[in-house]
Amino acid sequence: MLEVIDLRTSLFGPVSLSVAAGECVAIMGASGSGKSLFLRALADLDPNEGRVLLGDEDRDAMPADRWRRKVAMVPAESGWWSDRVADHFEPGAVAGVLLEAFGLPDAMAWEVSRLSSGERHRLALARALALKPAAILLDEPTATLDEAATAQVEAVLRDELARGVPVVLVTHDPAQAKRMGSRLLTMERGRLHARAEARA
Ligand SMILES: Nc1ncnc2c1ncn2[C@@H]1O[C@H](COP(=O)(O)OP(=O)(O)OP(=O)(O)O)[C@@H](O)[C@H]1O
What we know:
Layout: E1 2-8, E2 15-19, E3 24-29, H1 35-42, E4 49-54, E5 57-58, H2 64-70, E6 71-74, H3 93-101, H4 117-129, E7 135-139, H5 147-162, E8 167-170, H6 174-180, E9 183-188, E10 191-194, H7 196-199
Parallel strand pairs: 3-8, 3-9, 6-7, 7-8
Antiparallel strand pairs: 1-2, 1-4, 4-5, 9-10
């Protein structure tokens, strides 16, 4: 369970939200409504106030880097700090399995400079999931992807949900929100509301 209590910055909130183990909450909302800022605050990437709990662990009781490893945010545009894709992954079999699932089995040997935007996005997702986070925050994870690659990403996310990971998914795609979200919320001027479909 990921529990958010009165999370806020000067630019959004307060927002309170509970995401159960294995639940995907899909958040839509107009451009500039505060969706990315909310995810960044949840991951403790920007200064913020409020409480965030993961199971019985309190974010404020652990160093920020430990929290960010547990609660992985994959932003809309990922950062790369080395020339080779492989340098962004810890050694081990988990990454290989993910790259297969994303249809990029050979990507470990590639240079970052050759990656298409869709490849970058899937590899950023694989990089985050390879660390086996306890909660996942996704900012438009398939915005750059075609239908087949979108299906691959959604299949991997379903596996994460099946193993009990709570997922917060920001998307501009209503069909994806319905496919993946067990609850649909909308961000409006920095506040979260239930969407009409979710109340029906
Ligand atoms: N450092 C900042 N200072 C002032 N305003 C900011 C800052 N960072 C973001 N904003 C503003 O806060 C608002 C919310 O930004 P945010 O990135 O969360 O939007 P979003 O809902 O994710 O939009 P999109 O769907 O376009 O990605 C925007 O109007 C943005 O310009």
